[in-house]
Design goal:
This protein is of the alpha+beta class. About 30% of the residues lie in helices and about 25% in strands. The chain has 17 helices and 23 strands. The strands form 6 sheets. Strands 3, 10, 11, 14, 15, 16, 17, 18, 19, 20 and 21 form an 11-stranded mixed beta sheet that branches. A 4-stranded antiparallel beta sheet has the order 6-7-9-8, covered by helices on one side. It has a two-stranded antiparallel sheet with strand order 1-2.
Amino acid sequence: MAATVAALVGLSPVTAGAQTAGGDLVVVQSSNPPSLDAMVTSSQASRNVTMNIYEPLFGFSENIQPIPILAESVDISPDGKTYHIPLRQGVKFHNGKEMTAEDVKASLERYIKYGATQAMLEPVDKIDVAGPYEVTLTLKAPSPTFLEAFASPRAPAVIIPAEEAVKGPNEIEIIGTGPYKFVEYVPDSHVKLERFEDYSANEAYDGIDGFGGRKTAYLDTVTFRVIPEPGAAVAALETGEVQLLEQLPVPTARRLAANGDIEIYENMPWAFLTLIFNMKEAPGDNPKFREAVQVALNDEEIMAIATEGLFQLYHGWMYEGSTYDAGDIGKDRYNVADAERAKALLKEAGYNNEPFSILTDSTIPEHGKAAVVIAEQLKAVGINAVINQVDWPTALKIRLQDEGWNAWTLMMGIEPYLGPAALISTLTGQAPHFRANDEQLDALYQELISTDSVEGRKEVFAEIQERLYEFGGIIKLGETGLMQASTADVKGFKPFRFPRVYDVWIESN
């Protein structure tokens, strides 16, 4: 039976409004979460579920700024090496135990050992318990972008009970501090969660804010169902068997837009669609050849077909209007579509009809469709383009090799969202996407992560954007989004980087 939210979670009658508690929300995603051990996976399918179960010390706000979640605040020493972090008190784990500094220390030490993005805690020299509800992180050297990296949701540094933190990857009990707690996982079927009645909402906020804020669990239970076939998922939504689709095809979303029983959400922008060169394999090792490809491409045509019309064109390597947007740099080299100039550049490059193998996959539709259009455009200027389409795991394996591929279609979702350091880290260091390093880009990345001020980092990122267009190891094709849908009785849902099922309720309850 439905109950008022005010009665269940202590809200005032004014804030309770029309929200009602109760019911089971069925959310559909297309694949199994490979793990529910949030630290050890960067999978989106996992994150969809785990970010409703676990919480980290810090996360990103709606405006992509680090904010405290389980932390109360942070005090950074003048030399930038010591982070003193008071914790929120009274926060309970799903097993009923109160979170203390010992749990935080044990969790972060486990992350350093097993975390899927261990590099984000690489600057940390030691973690000390400073009191029952206080920890201190001491860095090896000042790291101006440390807090941004620490707040990353890619494979989040979540806090779990100390007795679980001693266990290896995928050996823990699924116990967090979030508004929903784990019930069961049946692979190829579903993950079931239920409301955590002792959840400690963060009273410092009026409502949700990005990955943090004041979260309220209205639903009795949430079921994440795995339905790989989009048509079956849409049919289940139309009959009311399920209530929320993480993603649906763009044409289907347009068809359903006129259906009063369905609510459509456009989650935009979601990702960059890119073409990445293997700079260790000819002809992609030749800068003139790469420039010819950049000049030949009609990005608007590629994006229109690959995304079924859900796209926007922008040359910048950060989203337009965001903090690190570098303005017009590179604009004159984006979406050029100049066949005659491309042919002249191929001649300069000494290109002699060598095969140009475009690696793509059959799992993510945008990848395969983009590869087909790119290949046709390149053939039109005289490039012997061929497509090597495999499944997604195989593509990931091949692209780690120095030979056997020349270019690779990739949607970059979380990296541009996280900001310049996260994006450029994938293009530099020991294993850049290009396979070969660009020394200038590597040097600029080090300057970026060691520059103290935001204004200083903006200047460095402007140089990075210029360099990306100069050497042409990666081509940004455009920006795409996600179409999502719910039944009309689902209220409070706001598209975000994962389906936030807190602050969502079912009106009919």
